[in-house]
Amino acid sequence: MKALVYTEPNQMQLLERPMPVLVDGEVVLKIEAVGICGSDMHAWHGHDPRRQPGLVLGHEFVGRIEQSAAPGFAPGTRWTGNPLIVCGSCDYCVQGRNNLCANRSMVGMTRAGAFAEYMSIPAASLIAMPQDMPARAAALTEPAATAWHAVNLSMRALVRPLHECEVLIIGGGAIGMLAALLLERLGVRRLTVTELNPLRRASLARAVACEALDPRQHAPADAHFEYVIDAVGSAATRSLAFSAVKPGGVIMHVGLQDWASEIDMRKLTLAEITLLGTYTYTTADLRATVDALYRGRFGDLAWVEERRLDAGAMAFVDLDRGTSAAAKIVLRA
User: Can you give the pTM of this predicted structure?
Assistant: First the structure.
């Protein structure tokens, strides 16, 4: 089979790889579509020690079962899936918080991912979807569920209802775009998104009723927003989030661009700011997101760009250079 392989920093190659070996309890999927995630870009840059050269990346997928060694999972049926491979028995899994599983592994990190014609995965990780769901929408389940999970966690901490809040999203990539679309449909009417790429700002302005700003030219006002989502996670964006949030407000930290930075703990304490971290999604989030995408609750997804798998190496280059307006590029196998 053909697979897009991370061969060295800033290099992807389309190579021949052996077909996945079917083992008990798993299925082999024929991949229809797979999205390029920010974490894939992070690995491509050589910044993720967990993802080493030689690995097939990709964890935002939809596919059709080619082979099955699991009862109830018939060849020919279409599925998306949870790329987190969880144990199902630790305290977190039992509590329904399997995104925090103490024994988790991951597709596209600890095992071969979906930038390939075929991929194996435990059947327990598959998420049911309508069989007529467009591949573009199904491939967005994973990033959309990340936004879904983050917004749901935030609403528990906000003092006032979400629709009353003035909201800032830092970063107009896929998570920022999907969070903005979700917040708009949840009634938010005062929404600002900061994004450095002018092509993405134009895409945001077309897709969402928001103010799309270049923070280098138009910095958000200090202490102005009840709710801030940092969908980038750099030292600079964390600083911006703390500057922009109102006393008593909530910062939801989603992005993981930089692994460490200084946090203004004095402001956090004296202004009673709530700082929340979020990691991926639960199985319940994924199921709810499939339904929302299928029913069009994230809009028409016209801002998503599709390319062939054999054009995937150039897609990484275009995303790195900022020459694509798309917040998400989906590769079709």
Answer: 0.95
